[in-house]
Design brief:
The complex is a heterodimer of chains A (276) and B (249). With 276 residues, chain A is α/β, with parallel strands linked by helices. Chain A has a single domain, classed as TIM Barrel, CATH 3.20.20. Helices cover 40% and strands 18% of the residues of chain A. Chain A has nine helices and twelve strands. Chain A has an eight-stranded parallel barrel. In chain A, strands 5-6 form a two-stranded antiparallel ribbon. In chain A, α4 runs parallel beside α5, α7 runs parallel beside α8 and α8 runs parallel beside α9. Chain A is globular, with a radius of gyration of 18 Å. Chain A starts with a strand and ends in an 8-residue tail after the last helix. Chain B is mainly α and 249 residues long. Chain B has two domains: 105 residues, Orthogonal Bundle (DNA polymerase, domain 1); 121 residues, Outer Surface Protein A, domain 3 (Alpha-Beta Complex). In chain B, the strands form two sheets. Chain B has a three-stranded antiparallel sheet with strand order 1-6-2. Chain B has a three-stranded antiparallel sheet with strand order 3-4-5. In chain B, β4 and β5 form a beta hairpin. Chain B is elongated. The chains are: A alpha/beta (276), B mainly alpha (249). The interface between A and B is large, with 48 and 51 residues.
Chain lengths: 276, 249
Amino acid sequence: MVGIGYRKDFGEAFLTSKVLKPAFVEVAPENWVGVGGYWRKQFNKVLERYPLFTHGLSLSIGSPDELDFEFLKKVKVFLKETNARIYSEHLSYAKCDNAHLYDLLPIPFTNDAVQHVAGRIRTIQDLLERRIAIEIVSYYTPVAPEMKEIEFINAILEAADCDLLLDVNNVYVNGFNHQYDPKAFLKELPMDRVAYIHMAGHEQVSETLIIDTHGEAIIDPVYDLYAFAMQLLHRDVPVLLERDFNFPQLEELQAEMEQLNKIKQTALQTKNYAIA
Amino acid sequence: MQSRNATQHYQSALAGYCRTGMLENIPGVVQENVPQYRRLVLNVIDDMLQNAYPLTYDLLKETEWNAIVHDFFSNHPCQSPQVWYMPREFYQYLTETAHPILTTYSFLKELLWFEWIEVELFMMEDQRVPATANGALQTDKLVLNPEHSLLTFEYPVHQKNPKKISNADKRHYFVVAHRNSNGEVIFTDVTAALMRMVEYLAEAPYTTTELFSLFETEYGLQLSETDKEAILNFLKTALQQELIAGFAK
């Protein structure tokens, strides 16, 4: 199944469009907890029509600050109310020194951070009474690293025993920004933990830097990397098309989703010795 | 191995840089890319504040707007995990610190509050009340729509282009804001007496006769038939516009 992020900007299209046909929608609980009125009514109608996947923004799993248990309880209620199939969050931090920053900052790749973050993920999973998937975020600089990114991610996945949200575009962006082979990176990931895939566009802002904007169409090299990831996986995993602004016509979004589905189906029908 | 405090210290240093622009030495960072984080974080804050306060944004000079946004984000630790709620903290920060911009524009505090209330009422969680549509205005107890806010202004920030507001406009403005069942936020100018009626209903459902009586007792006066007719007309409109949710069951 291939879904798309639910956007209020064109919320009506999810109910009336004959063009847009996602298999599911995704929202951030932060944008809906405690929200009522017109948008909530429309969202409730969307929930009657599509399965819901959720992707958190502010839990700040990598933060040195205490977890926000009050908010986590609200998220738990929201997940139950909406019958959300997946709850995912970012392997990053968005709050520090008791201040929210509302964006995703890179966690230092350190042994202490591995222990700290893995413990928090276990706590969250216990409280929510469900496994969560964590997303490898795009980053523009390492911070005081003690180990390689892949070692950091794998150590956390192992210690936390959680699922992985594989954002293929982020792996591509990180490979470009930090000069590594994204296919080699994918090969080192524990593919059995992948529960969900994100795909998106990005913007190259200089010769050496790509910013993960979600504001452009997916480019061919990212489609290629996605095909490679699907061959590695060789099982059906839900895929999300992320688009947060600079929205094209619905036909273009639908075409991207169809392309993602086509690549997935091709990979599932191909024997996986092709990637050796 | 770095100590726990070292990891935390570097996280704090990066977060602090995003908020203040003051970068301390962090090992391993790509110096030319670090500013991207401050840019991205500030974009989120600025976008959210512009969306919540479009009239204020339009009123202020660009330098004034940028200065208060940076001041807020540098000095105020945002508490809400929900970014749409963060603009309320912006209002609170400016008022609690008695920010000089509120003196430059004497009506700005009220303008910010007016703009925030529209956001808050539009977004607020649905609140159900035990009310029925079946009843009579003259005899049944009236139930107020809980999705409302009572506002008193000294400037007509809800009526007039902020760029045209002057001290000559200064007087008492009583405004009732509410959200109807279509999700629309409606601002209604009322008199002081009508505002008091709405306040009574905010405490408990009352019949119109009880409302008249409460008012007469509190102010030690006798409402004329004309006064009562005006109040009834207001309540009738309030019922149509869903400021009054219905009748007590």
